[in-house]
Amino acid sequence: MNQHIKKVVIPVAGLGTRVLPATKSIPKELLPVVDRPLIDYVVAEARDAGIEQIILVTGRGKSAIEDYFDHAFELEATLKAKAKGDILAEVEKTIPRAGDLSYTRQQAPLGLGHAVWCARAMVGDEPFAVSLPDEIVPHRPGFLRQMVDAYEEVGGNLVAVEEVPKSDTSKYGVIAPKVRKGALIEMTGMVEKPKPEAAPSNFRIIGRYILQPEIFRLLETQEKGAGGEIQLTDSMNKLNSSQAFHACVCVGVIHDCGSKLGWLQANVDLGLKNAELRDALGDFIRERIK
Ligand code: G1P
Fold it and tell me: Can you tell me the distance from the alpha carbon of 117 to that of 217, in angstroms, rounded to the nearest whole number?
C-alpha cells in the first residue's frame, strides 16, 4: 500500500513580479478571486484531497498570510454585535484547526527548488504534495485529489501537466513524454523553461506535485538552473531516473492567476459559477462583447 499523503508544501515567498504593482504591498497569494484570496482556494483543494497538514514556505513581507488564517477578534466581535452571523460563519471557515498549519521562512529568493527544500524538516521522511498558489482549480475533484487518487494506484512521484501552445514552453517546466497510459505519462525527462525550438513536447508542468522525500537530498546539492535559480524541475529530472515518476493529465481547467489574463479569467469563471453573481455578470459580459 502506498503511504497516505498527509502534508502539502505551499511556497508563498515569491515576489509576484508578473502582477506588479498590485503586489507591491500585499502578497500575491492574497489577491482575491471573487471573494476569497488565492491561498484559500489552494488550501481548500488540499483539504479536499485528504491532506491534513499545510506547510507554508513564507518570506519577508508575507505576514498578512498568517493573519488571514488566524482569528481577527475585533472583526469577529463586531460581526457578532451586528448580528451578521452569515458573514461571520464565512470568516470563521477560513481558520484551520490549531496546529494544522505551519510556517517556515525562505530567507532569500533562490528559486522554487530551494523553497521546497526549506520545508524538509517539517515534511520528514514521507511522501508529500506541493501546490503552487498562483494556480487555482475552480471545480471538484481538484487536481490534487485526482493526483492523490492516481498516486494510490501507481505510487512514486507525480507531476500534473497540461498541453499548451508550443510558443508558451519558455514560461514553464516541460516534460519529455515516453509512454502514455490513460491519464498517466512516463517520461524520459523534464526541462525548466525551454525555448519552443528546444522543448521536448508541449506538455507543461502545472503547480501540483506528489514527491518522495528523496527529492530533498537532490535539492540539497542542486546547482542553479534556468533564471539562475535552484529549480525543482532539475531535481525532479534526476529523481525520474531512479524512481517511478508519472506526469498526470488531470481533468478540468486550472487558472494561472500569476498572470493578469489568468487572474481575470479566474474571476469571470468563478463569478459565473457564483449563484449570487451569475446572472448580472453574464448580462454585463454579453453587453460588453456585443
Ligand atoms: C514554476 C515551475 C515550473 C512550472 C510552473 C507552474 O515556475 O518552476 O516548472 O511549470 O511553476 O506554474 P514559476 O511559475 O515559478 O516560474
Answer: 9
**Is 1 part of any domain?**
no
Q: What residues line ligand 1, using a CB cutoff of 6 Å?
A: 112, 132, 134-135, 172-173, 192, 204-207, 231-233
Q: Which atom of ligand 1 is nearest to the CA of 231?
A: 8
Q: What is the pLDDT of residue 171?
A: 93
- Write down the pTM of the prediction: 0.95
Domain count across the chain: 1
CATH number at residue 137: 3.90.550.10
Length of the chain: 290
Q: From the CA of 173, how far away is ligand 1's center (Å)?
A: 6
Q: What residue's CA is closest to ligand 1, atom 15?
A: 112
